[in-house]
Amino acid sequence: MDMRRIRIIGTGKYLPAKEVTSEDLDIITGKSPGWVYKKSGVKVRHYAEEETVSQMGAKAAMAALEHAGLSLSDVDCMICASSIPEQPIPCTASIIQNEMGYGDSGIPCFDVNSTCLSFVAALDLISYLVDAGRYRRVLIVATEKASIGLNYKDAESSILFGDGAAAVIVGTSAENESAGILASRMETYGSGKALSEVRGGGSKFPPRHYSPATDAEYLFDMRGEAIFKKTSKLLPDFLSRLFGEAEMRMTDLDLVIPHQGSAMAMRLLQKKLGITDRQMMNIIENHGNTIAASIPMGLHEAVQGGRLKRGDRFALIGISAGVSLGGMIMEY
After folding, report:
1. With a threshold of 0.85, does the pTM exceed it?
2. 259 catalytic, yes or no?
3. Domain-embedded: residue 1
4. Is 286 a catalytic site residue?
């Protein structure tokens, strides 16, 4: 087991003010009362109105800095780990830096995108640089405005999502600490690329090609059942390889923080993988699926709620468009 010595030193979260209940979405989607909650397991999710992803990300970042007792000048790298950028150019991390009032600071900024696994991918990549001493403290921000691209004609997918941001600051573990990454793994199966996508907005369907006739190309499209069928076959062997790297079993963990995709998917995941209620971190009911912000939001809630304490061992587990599977085992 080759441990990377990094320590989580601060977490933060931001949710926009507007609450959208399952009852609201019953009306919007034209479904019978109670249908949305039964299908999604989400009672309330938050939608950003005028706020941008950079504004939400900046607020989550400031909360994480406050939790760590730091200012942004104490950070020497910023990463935005989100699925949809605020704009194609420049990177969203630089826009967040400027939003925080540090636009002339010189702090290096870049984005990492693996849709729902963006935070895990960013943490995995940057951990090697922190462990090597290249950076002392790194701020990772995951911020999502899913509501802007939902297609309510596709009711089963659109009802799952919410907006918001989460931020995590990582630094080097002290000599007398055991905090670090015990194992990490990511696998991608591109044959599932069409199972979850937004086709418009890039070079294939650029914005200037938008018209009412091509509207669906610019909205979120997901085949949830097909994704679950594909990933459920792959996940047990994937986790066996991940836990093998850490020389651990699921029963050795104090907490599991999964991507909060949907209540049904999480129940099936819990049953299939043998995760106990004590181990399971579940925030889906009052957050919805916040895409890349989902896992760091769960991490923040675990820290703030006392479910994750120093010395505890935990796992971050998720799937993303691609289709990708990702996981990380850490000691907090």
Report:
1. yes
2. yes
3. no
4. no
CA–CA distance, 279 with 115 (Å, rounded to integer): 25
Output phi, psi for 136, to 5 deg.
-90, -45
Confidence of residue 205 (pLDDT cuts 50, 70, 90): confident
| Whole-Å CA distances, 243 to 5, 79, 230, 272, 332 | 18, 27, 21, 16, 17
Instruction: Single out the catalytic residue among 46, 67, 109, 259.
Output: 259
Residue linked to tokens 């907006």: 163
Whether residues 144 and 256 share a domain: the answer is: no
What are the tens digits of pLDDT across the range 72-122? 999 999 999 999 999 999 999 999 999 999 999 999 999 999 999 999 999
Q: Which residue among 172, 206, 230 closes a domain?
A: 172
Q: Note whether 319 and 272 are within 8 A (CB).
A: no
Q: Do 20 and 100 belong to one domain?
A: yes
Phi/psi-derived region of residue 293, left when phi > 0, alpha when psi is between -120 and 50, beta in every other case: alpha
Q: What is the DSSP letter of 217?
A: G
Q: Which of 116, 282, 287, 300 is catalytic?
A: 116
Exactly one of 80, 109, 287, 289 is catalytic; name it.
289
**Residue 287 a catalytic site member:** no
Residues 137 and 198 reside in one and the same domain: no
Same domain, 147 and 18: yes
The answer to whether residues 142 and 207 belong to one domain is: no
> How far is it, in rounded angstroms, from Cα 308 to Cα 314?
8
